[in-house]
Amino acid sequence: MPDLVDQVEKAxxxxxxxxxxxxxxxxxxxxxxxxxxxxxxxxxLLRIYHRWFLVPMFWLIRWTLRVLWWLCLAYxxxxxxxLAIVWRYTVVPVRTFIRRL
Length: 101
Prior knowledge:
Elements (H helix, E strand, L loop, with lengths): L1 H99 L1
């Protein structure tokens, strides 16, 4: 009977050893595969993404903000500032004149 137990334990150890070795091989291949994917696939994709998407997107955002700033300045100097001047020199004197009556 102890011989059967020893044989089962030996078989279990061998199976465990084979499992560990196979996982080591799989993990090694996985690590090499990940390195290959990162260096040969992801880096070129990131370069393409940066060149053809990020740079134009930043350019577009920058120029959009510039144009919005110019529009705000134009709105202020063309509409708000003249109306403030008109208000100061027409509405305020008329209102004070009416109050003094």
